[in-house]
Design a protein that fits this description.
single chain; about 110 residues; alpha/beta; Macrophage Migration Inhibitory Factor; 4-stranded mixed sheet; about 30% helix; about 20% strand; EC 5.3.2.1; phenylpyruvate tautomerase activity; isomerase; Macrophage_inhib_fac
Length: about 110
């Protein structure tokens, strides 16, 4: 189950949250290859967050998935989620950081 957690200093008041969640869910499902009903999204707005020493719009995200992550998927997630946040919340892609984790990486498959 992929889980995306985003914190941003941007207020979510007046944001079309349904559209934001829908776009993020569809993108993650498509990129990682998991069904949409397995994707979880959490977005926290108006958090105290600085980036580069200032409080201009910025976001920090973390996505965790059980499988489906490789170098190409990671790049596509960063680019696509960054574009969605830029379009929906006016956060420049250069002010968005995404940490990507695959919980199955490093496991010895013979022990599963």
């Amino acid at each position: 189950m992929p889980c995306l957690d985003i914190s941003t200093n941007v207020s979510l008041d007046g944001v079309d949250a349904d559209s934001l969640f829908s776009d993020l869910t569809k993108a993650i499902s498509r990129i990682i290859g998991k069904p949409e009903n397995f994707v979880m999204i959490l977005v926290k707005g108006s958090v105290t967050l600085t980036f580069g020493g200032n409080k201009e719009p910025a976001a920090l995200g973390e996505i965790v998935s059980m499988g489906g992550i490789n170098r190409q998927v990671k790049r596509e997630l960063i680019a696509t989620i960054g574009t969605i946040l830029e379009n929906k919340l006016s956060i420049p892609r250069t002010r968005f950081v995404l940490k990507v984790f695959d919980t199955t990486m490093g496991r010895n498959s013979s022990k599963l």
